[in-house]
Write a structure and sequence with these properties.
about 280 residues; alpha/beta; TIM Barrel; eight-stranded mixed barrel; 13 strands; globular; disordered N terminus
């Protein structure tokens, strides 16, 4: 090979290498920018500025009687409720209403921790019918393990369809949890911002269908599960057990205060108990 040909070949190799490197950089930049854009466009993420609005509950007005908690001050009263699923078995809703329960959140579907398979709750129809027929205000919830926008949309659409045949008085709730009984969920493989994307995608889709929305989380869960700046505009159903009052400083509309309560009509099983903070004005 002549010197001229060698120089030309070396030059072409250098140019080719530079072009490939530039393509890799541009491709990575495009993927990053596209992912960021989709995160915002598909979820309609809106960041709230810190500090976030705080609640103004006065916890010395909290009353505890057995498994029941109530609240009353000059601004709020409260209602007593439960949240149930197939785990509570067959429920006698007439007895539940007679026990002073005024509202219920009823699970319509859930996604598996590991596989991500999506299932309906076998007791949903019976529970909704029982609550509606006995004057108990009803909302529904989906247990989510969505890790893509498509999965979050699927969950929202299922909830919307589930609600159509019943009287829905309360929000449709997005319930995402990181682990249960020591098993870590698939949602822990994505970031807190992406989990916020799932929540906002679900809630915006349900809201567009004409329903009130809410998301669920415990105090410890909220610190790690979501990027709070993106979910502050939505009502919160807070879970915190074994405390006299919640330690969460920001606004919330419902408090799940027990997972081991006994309620007439839910025989042989414990249930979650909740209170709803109802504004007087």
């Amino acid at each position: 090979m002549t010197k001229r040909k060698r120089r030309k070949l070396q030059k072409n190799i250098i140019i080719g290498t530079a072009v490939i490197a530039a393509m890799i950089v541009c491709s990575a930049s495009f993927v990053s920018c596209t992912r960021s854009r989709l995160l915002k466009e598909q979820s309609q993420l809106i960041a709230f500025e810190y500090p976030y609005p705080t609640n103004n509950y006065q916890w010395d007005h909290l009353q505890i009687k057995g498994d029941y908690v109530s609240y009353e001050d000059e601004n709020y009263t409260s209602q007593q409720g439960v949240d149930v699923s197939v785990h509570q078995g067959t429920i006698d809703w007439k007895k539940v209403a007679g026990a002073g329960i005024e509202f219920a959140f009823i699970r319509t579907a859930y996604r598996g921790y590991g596989t991500g398979d999506f299932y309906s709750d076998d007791q949903f129809e019976a529970n909704m019918k029982g609550a509606n027929e006995n004057g108990i205000d009803a909302g529904i919830y989906v247990f989510s393990q969505a890790i893509t926008v498509a999965e979050a949309a699927e969950e929202a659409d299922y909830a919307i369809q589930s609600a159509k045949n019943y009287k829905i008085d309360l929000p449709i709730v997005f319930d995402m949890e990181g682990s249960i009984d020591g098993e870590e969920g698939r949602v822990m493989t994505i970031s807190s911002e992406e989990r916020s994307q799932m929540a906002v995608t679900f809630m915006n889709r349900v809201k567009a269908a004409g329903y009130d929305v809410m998301y669920y989380g415990s105090t410890s869960l909220l610190e790690n599960m979501f990027d709070l700046q993106y979910v502050q505009e939505y009502p919160l159903w807070l879970a915190e057990y074994d405390v006299y009052y919640p330690n969460y400083p920001y606004q919330f509309a419902y408090w799940q205060y027990s997972s081991t309560a006994q309620v007439p009509g839910i025989d042989g099983n414990t249930t979650d108990m909740d209170i709803r903070f109802v504004p007087k004005n």
